[in-house]
Design goal:
By secondary structure, the chain is mainly alpha-helical. It has ten helices and no strands. α2 packs across α4, α3 crosses α10 and α9 packs across α10.
Length: about 180
């Protein structure tokens, strides 16, 4: 899949296109933030927020520009906003209206990562999950073992639904990589 086609498909709500864009540009955005912030967890958090905001506003993307540049600009602005909030010591809660406008990623048919997750032996799967960062372990647990909806997870974690969706996409991708590495190595 090419980036231009993925953007067009993502604008139509295609889950595979969102996954492709996340996989393709994650490292660029994450490394950009890691150089700025110099803290892996904070860089990851800003990266998640970046994709959350970008996916929520993908309809506004102008194809005359590079998608990666657009993501980096969003990422830079999110970081600046976070720094301003920290400096001002203001804690602004996400409103219900913002959550309702959140990107609706279709739960639809299982992705390859979903298939890998459900096909594995439970005890082995738990060992793989333990290799993830605690935040990813928690979101996998809430979604697949407690069978919580995105909305419920967002409420439990006190995070916007977009962040939950991007974290879950990332957690599934990392878990699938761990499983594939085990199977192939």
């Amino acid at each position: 899949m090419k980036v231009a086609q993925a953007i067009t498909d993502a604008k139509k709500g295609d889950q595979i296109a969102f996954n492709f864009l996340l996989d393709t540009f994650w490292n660029s955005v994450y490394n950009f933030q890691l150089k700025r912030i110099k803290n892996e967890n904070d860089a990851e958090d800003v990266t998640i927020r970046t994709f959350s905001k970008a996916f929520d506003r993908i309809d506004t993307f102008d194809e005359r520009y590079k998608f990666e540049t657009w993501l980096i600009t969003i990422s830079k602005n999110i970081h600046i906003d976070l720094m301003r909030k920290q400096n001002a010591s203001i804690n602004i809660a996400t409103t219900e209206e913002q959550e309702q406008k959140a990107l609706e990623v279709v739960d639809g048919s299982p992705t390859p990562e979903d298939k890998l997750i459900t096909e594995q032996n439970l005890a082995q799967l738990l060992q793989f999950i333990k290799q993830l960062k605690p935040a990813y372990q928690q979101i996998i647990n809430l979604r697949y073992f407690q069978e919580r909806s995105y909305k419920e997870i967002a409420q439990i974690l006190n995070e916007p639904m977009n962040n939950v969706k991007v974290k879950l996409l990332r957690a599934k991708k990392l878990l699938a990589e761990i499983i594939n590495n085990y199977q192939n190595g």
